[in-house]
């Protein structure tokens, strides 16, 4: 009975208590350091831009206003760009995860004689790249300029994601796959009905990685679709808004800006616009992450069992 009480912590040494106290303090500080930048950006985005110049905005707005969000969302293209960002995130994530899982299953099979060669060939692309101009010429020759599919096809196989999924699949019980083959299932049927359902944790992890990358990407829009307004994304539009805000601030000069500070008209600053953009861009990902958190933890743990 005494041993059981000690196991469950009813009798703890002073060293254990000190360790627990230090651990709790450290975790609280870590949470504060992690959350403060986002909370501060939220406070600045909801604070009057003229008042924010004075400084002293930390955890909540001093002069509450929606003017910064009205400035960002008054652009006519912002809502269509948001739709394009959602489409590229959903379609790109689904296609990338499915195709990466298929290739990962192929190179995980010991009977595939070229699996080592294919794996090395994929890994080499992580260290060597053709460069920006060859990539642009390749996209142009493939006819994907000013096309939605330039957001999906070039990143259809992610090598890092491929390695994670392959490591996870290699850790699955071989007996389950052999039982499926004995029952007459082909490789594709085994992959669809056995491997994919068992790989949900690692697939959710890869989906989160891919979704965040797709949502935040804007440089490919600048390179390949900058002349096509219908294919512009939210991140690219927000980047243009920030550039316009910086340009307006620079061209107006200090005297003009001082007059604007005393005017009744609403003004914004690059700092307020940047904080507002941070909230607008990160909020959708933060809303999705809680639903994938448990799969994310499982996938990162189980996917790293084998290298």
TrEMBL record:
Domain spans labelled ABC transmembrane type-1: 82-289
GO cellular component: plasma membrane
InterPro entries xrefs: MetI-like, MetI-like_sf
CDD domains assigned to the protein according to its UniProt record, in alphabetical order: TM_PBP2
Gene3D superfamilies: MetI-like (1.10.3720.10)
TM ranges: 21-39, 78-105, 117-136, 148-169, 190-215, 273-292
Membrane disposition: Multi-pass membrane protein
Keywords: Cell membrane, Membrane, Transmembrane, Transmembrane helix, Transport
GO BP, sorted A to Z: transmembrane transport
Domain of life: Bacteria
Coiled coil location: none
Entry keyword Membrane: yes
Main location class: membrane
Cellular location(s): Cell membrane
Family membership noted in the UniProt record: Belongs to the binding-protein-dependent transport system permease family.
Protein name, as recorded: Carbohydrate ABC transporter permease
UniProt lineage: Bacteria, Bacillati, Bacillota, Bacilli, Bacillales
């Amino acid at each position: 009975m005494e041993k059981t009480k000690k196991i469950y912590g009813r009798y703890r040494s002073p060293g254990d208590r000190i360790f627990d106290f230090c651990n709790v303090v450290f975790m609280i500080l870590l949470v504060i350091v992690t959350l403060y930048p986002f909370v501060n950006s939220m406070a600045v985005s909801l604070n009057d831009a003229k008042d924010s110049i004075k400084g002293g905005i930390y955890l909540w707005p001093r002069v509450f206003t929606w003017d910064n969000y009205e400035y960002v969302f008054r652009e006519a293209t912002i809502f269509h760009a948001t739709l394009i960002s959602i489409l590229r995130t959903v379609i790109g994530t689904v296609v990338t995860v499915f195709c990466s899982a298929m290739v990962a299953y192929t190179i995980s099979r010991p009977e595939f004689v070229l699996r080592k060669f294919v794996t090395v060939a994929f890994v080499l692309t992580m260290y060597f790249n053709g460069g920006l101009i060859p990539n642009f010429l390749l996209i142009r020759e493939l006819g994907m300029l000013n096309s939605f599919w330039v957001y999906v096809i070039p990143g259809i196989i992610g090598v890092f994601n491929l390695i994670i999924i392959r490591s996870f699949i290699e850790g699955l019980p071989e007996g389950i796959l052999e039982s499926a083959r004995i029952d007459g299932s082909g490789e594709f049927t085994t992959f669809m009905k056995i491997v994919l359902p068992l790989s949900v944790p690692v697939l959710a992890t890869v989906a989160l990685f891919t979704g965040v990358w797709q949502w935040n990407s804007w440089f490919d829009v600048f390179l390949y679709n900058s002349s096509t307004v219908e294919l512009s994304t939210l991140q690219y539009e927000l980047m243009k808004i920030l550039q316009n805000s910086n340009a307006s601030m620079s061209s107006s000069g200090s005297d003009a800006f001082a007059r604007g500070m005393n005017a009744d008209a609403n003004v914004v600053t690059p700092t307020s616009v940047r904080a507002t953009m941070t909230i607008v861009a990160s909020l959708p990902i933060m809303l999705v992450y809680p639903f994938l958190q448990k799969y994310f933890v499982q996938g990162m743990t189980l996917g790293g069992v084998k290298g």
